[in-house]
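hi got a favour to ask and not much time before my train. below you get a single protein, a line of residues and a line of whole numbers that encode the local backbone shape. could you go over both lines and see whether the tokens make sense for that sequence. a few lines back from you is plenty, here it is:
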Amino acid sequence: MDSVISIKNGSVFQNENRVLKDINLEIGRGEFVYLIGKSGSGKSTLLKTLYADLPAREGSFQIAGFNLNEIKKKEIPFLRRKIGIVFQDFQLLYDRNVEQNLSFVLKATGWEDEKSISRRIDDVLQLIGLQDKKNKMPYRLSGGEQQGVAIARALLNNPDVILADEPTGNLDPDTSTDVMKLFMKIRGQKTTILMATHNYNLIIKYPSTVINCNNGTVKLSK
């Protein structure tokens, strides 16, 4: 398997507290994997370790070609170009419009040519179906549209993997379905998606691999 995420005998920590241990995961290119578990079970801690917000201190952690055990602080921006991150609360910049939100991310990750930036923004907004919202302020958009912009932002650098932390948590059922349809479309382009969720209805509607954070460990659900 062409692994995009590989964890061997891993543990993740919040401060000095070991939250999860004995993690052994291999997630391949183009896979869609749900990460489930109760609040406080370690889902967010695992995702934060994978995008290097928390250090990988025990075991072997690799993602998108990066060894997280050895990654240096100056290398983290390069890692984040390979990873798209989608949050429950959107985390958009509300003092600028959609295009400016996306342009900010591209410039922060090394893009300089304005024409290339504009083209890439148009491409991701067209993929998401929000090309007509380019000049809108985020607070003028619905919750689903805001999450769509957040997904567009995650796609800007053609990431190998998207890490989504409860992306439908603030959305109604119909809008959650729209977001899942977007993820299925993205998955079809061979992007790996690891999505933490409490929404078991989505898992039933869009069945895929499920891994469960429970009692301090991570197990593949049967």
Residues 79 and 215 are 30 Å apart (CA to CA). The mean pLDDT is 92. The longest strand covers residues 3-14.
